[in-house]
Amino acid sequence: MNPIYLILLLTSTVIFISVSQTEADNCEFSGATSLVMSEESPVGSTILNLEAGFGTVTGDGRYFNITTSTYSDYFTIENDSLTVAIQYDIDSQVDEIELDINCYLINSQSDPTSTTLTLKVEDINDNSPTFPGSDFNTTVAENTAVGTEVFDVSSLDITDNDLTSKYQIWRFYLEDFKSEDPSGDFTIDTYTGVISLAENLNYDAISEYSFTIIVTDQNDNSSSDSATLNVTVTDVDDMPPIFSTFIYYANITDTFTGVVTTDVSINAYDQDFSINQSVVYSIISGDDDSYFSIDVDTGQLNVSTSVVDTDIDQFTLVIKAEQSDDPLKAGYAVVMVTVSRLGTPVFQFESYTFDVYENVDIGVVLGSVELTDTTDTTSVFNFTIIYPTEDLPFDVSSSGDIEVVDQLDRETEDFYNITIMAYNTADITVNSSVVVHVNVLDINDSPPSITNLPSTLQLYNNVTAGTEVFTVESADDDLNAFTVYTIVSGAENMFYISEITGSVYAAMNLSLASLSYYGIDIQVYNYDNTSLVDSAILNITLLDSDENTDELITTVVSTHLPSTLGVSSVGSTDHLTTTAHS
Questions:
Q1: Cβ count near 290 (within 10 Å)
Q2: CA 558/CA 570 separation, integer angstroms
Q3: Which has the higher per-residue pLDDT, 63 or 51?
């Protein structure tokens, strides 16, 4: 018996396997042509014995190969046992494999004998279902009815590499809500993957949901995949306007008109926040006589007409805020308005007069403007100066006291005419006024000033003793001030002055004078306050006279000299001429 070779051709490789030679001269296959195998069969395991599987294979030297199969490389024929074994893992994507097995006689030119082996791959549940992504989104209107389908998880392109349909049966779950308060608003059908609305939605409470959707094999929860489903709730116009509070409170006086101030600003808003339609305000009850009005756009409440002529103590106003595009959507609130009756201030006297010395201290109270008793014990009154409004050295307190707030000066202003108003603090329009006269009294605080000294007084030397040669004049801003004149120096006993009149006299015959010029320092001061003083130089020039002339004093030269002591300016007398006769 000659050796027989079994040759397995895989791709371009030829393998010769030595087998026992039979006396037959051809290859014959008989027996089964199909076989069932599991996709989890391990590498190296035998799936077919050629002789056992196909019956006797007869013939001389033979070789075998596997052709025409995408999966040829996954199998090999063992050298000695004529068995077909698994060479690679089969994680099959198909449920059936066909292997064409050919038997050749080595020394024969005849065609090979072939048979087709059909391998039915038995699928196992070894793949998980997989979502086509990690995040999915959907929207739902807030007025969607309970029970409505909002999302179908099974409609996603879920993949599962298990080919057997029984292994492609899935279960669906929801978990890990990430909204503020899901409260079971959604439910999922475990078998179909349909997510439905379980509770009514409220956009204003929750506008977005985010939760995890899970798909699993029906018999193996560990074989699963998950993804995030984001549900956006869209708003619909289903809510009426609402006020910030149900009851507002306000207080007005009986004389008041204008904007009413409430404890909380009157305000209504559309509860559909994303739509937020504007609202229109109106008063629908509680104001039969139309004392009030309300701004339709802002809700600002006003008193149009005062209630001073009524005995109404309180109003209960019902306010409506309706949606501008849908009057049927409206909210309501109540405004409780309490009316206070005000007392009018009445002064005790028709006018007031106060005297004050000009040297009074700042802060001294001159007196008070008082109100008469009133039966209105609830009213509080205040006082203010309404005329003049500027540069006034007085102010009035809340109790009516008139106070000195700046230094007085009678020489600048000796009389003030002031108008003071008393008003009810609850309503400044409830008021009355009174005139106050203030007389500023003089004090001796201004120095006298010499007003008429000439630059030079020219005298002839024939003036005799006792002759009046000049009269010094002075001025004093103080009322009833008494001034005193005196010569301080420079007269050299040739001249003297009257303390009362300021007249200057020759003390002796000027012909006896030893000087031709005298600069007499004359001083004038206040009798009651000697520190108030002024002084100046009277310049006298003596001229020689003709014995036959009767002229004693020539023309005064140039006046308007400043005080030599700097106390005040000397007044002037232009071209004063005095003539004396013997």
A1: 9
A2: 12
A3: 63
